Amino acid sequence: MSMKEKIARYAREIAKPEPTLSAQLTVAQAVDFFLKHETLTATAVIKDQQVLGLVERKTLTDLFSSRFGRELNAKKSIARFVEKQSLIVSTNTPLEIISKMITERTASNAQGVFVVTDNSSYFGLGYFIDLLRAITEIKMMLAQEANPLTDLPGNKAIQNAMQAQIVAKQPFLALYFDLDHFKAYNDYYGYEKGDVVLSSLAQLLRHHVRDDEFLGHIGGDDFILIWKVDAWQERLLHIFDAFSSRLSKWYDPEQIAKGGFEGLDRHNKTCFFSLMSLSVGVLAVKVEQFQYEHQLAQLASKAKKKAKSLTGNSWYVMEH
Questions:
Q1: Domains and their CATH numbers in the chain
Q2: Residues 244-269: pLDDT tens digits?
Q3: CB atoms within 10 A of CB 256
């Protein structure tokens, strides 16, 4: 098995099938449970196959160590001592999302533990240390997969980012960027200057991606952006303007004046090539519209092809 296959990406991959407590048990019985399972710092409390939340070993230890604590609480239901803000996630929740949920929580989590459910039923416990280890491995993998020219995340990261957005159940935009007439430019000016164009485009796109958005490099002159849905047309026009302003750095003045240049096509025939422009396929993704990232990736690619049939900097919105 390759390193990529070993890396956990979803909650189910790091969940451990730890024993649980029934909500019908008393506090005294729960204390006995933790004495029997010495390595557990917390566990899930279950009622009618549904997870109520986590109960901590420390909570019960503190309870019984207080004056009259045992006498007053021993016969109470353990369900009364469930951590009210227990973190509960589904098996298909991406690890990146769980990490974000943890960092955004104001309450301290039960001993670095969260509950993983499958169709609302208990699946296992997840531990922060395992989550941290898996995310570190993911970052190492993504660093290895990053495009060497632009240093942007590659295809695997793009797939994960799209799937994470689907699972988050928030509307978003998938934008597929393609550079028109880039091959002709590359053939005419050479790969070194072509690389300069790609690096410059990557830098430009970076400036138009917020901290909670995503930019990836599929390869060649193809890029993927994942944006929030607000004011996207205005943002895209800013990218077009910034891109057009850079053309004078890449072409000779005469070619700028003519709007292009003469070169050889793939059939070795002389023809006129327009200046490079951007074609963007836009896919507006609604909540629960897709289940898997490859479904929206295919539609975004179709939208990009539609945009390429238009002249100059352009976008095409795919209706679905």
A1: 3-132 (3.10.580.10), 147-318 (3.30.70.270)
A2: 999 999 999 999 999 999 988 888 88
A3: 14
